[in-house]
Uroporphyrinogen decarboxylase (Alicyclobacillus dauci), 345 residues
Amino acid sequence: MFNDTFLRACRRQQTERVPVWFMRQAGRYDVDYRAIRKRYTLVEICEHPEVCVEVTKMPVAKLGVDAAILFSDIMIPVGAMGLPFVIKENVGPVIDSPIRHECDVNRLQPFDPEESLPHVLQTIRLLKQELTVPLIGFVGGPFTLASYMVEGGPSRDYLATKQLMVSRPDLWGHLMDKLTAMIIEYGAAQVHAGAAALQVFDSWVGSLSPSDFRTYVKPTMDRIFAGLRHLDVPLIYFGVNTGELLSDFATTGATVVGVDWRVPIRTARARVGHDVALQGNFDPAMLFAPRAEIEKRAHEILLQGTEAPGFVFNLGHGVKPTTDIEVLRELVNTVHAFTPGSSSR
Ligand code: 1CP
């Protein structure tokens, strides 16, 4: 039996229970993932469909989550655009020759996903046959991808990115155009191969003020979702620290808005209105709290989430590598056992 609870919640339809999945649900907290990572690098996992299928399926079997997320990284298509990167252990993506000038942006190449990333699409086709839950495909958001491309790696303050954005709006626009085309094409290819939903991880866009978001990023997001809309799959827009951007997120054309733990779900709902679903927002650090505390906090989120149709339980950001898998399992059970009204309000 195919479990479509997640898809129905994204579309704000009735569900018997609240669906749950976790960002970074395949990862180092899991002993089998660590064993596979001893033999393959992250990029090598992505290049071997049979391994990538196994890694993607692991959390579905072990945790009982209601959706799978393709195992990949937001930087994979950036490599295919002709900007080489490496993933450094305990650091993240690093680019030797970051984008700073006109010629760097000009050099970025459009690519055919079938030609340049056939292994990713093959992985999705295999998963489509094997999974009994929906597969979430994903792409990096334009600000977040640009931040790695311009900074050359992870950053605290995005100085070079913001400098380019405000001092060379023409060049920023050119970069946004190229990323828009890539995101739409690559997202569509994932859906055609079998992804049932798409999440745009614009993890670091919350570093912008609302006014800068509206000027420099929102028009790009509007175009991206307009270009993906015809695929008729739920489109999730997520970033951290986006409390002040949530009302703008709601009008990008996203079906679902991701929320981190800094904003209570009830507050988020007031900011986004009733035309989008919400996803979130358990603080991943609180998975290290005592069990009773975890349950209490999960219930608070569930109570607020079920006040209106359209809620997907998730963390506010990715699972930390030292998380106890048993705690994740229990959290899934807590979410699944919850029925609105079952807890005293
Ligand atoms: O093998 C490892 O454990 C290396 C760590 C790792 C992993 C597991 C990286 C390097 N990428 C990934 C996989 C990954 N990346 C997934 C897997 C699917 C799942 O959720 O189970 C996803 C969705 C991503 C997307 C991604 N990559 C994001 C957006 C999500 C987020 O966490 O905000 C970002 C920002 C990246 C960049 C990146 N890649 C890797 C790291 C450590 C980082 C973050 C670096 C930074 O802090 O800037």
In short: The chain has 16 helices and nine strands.
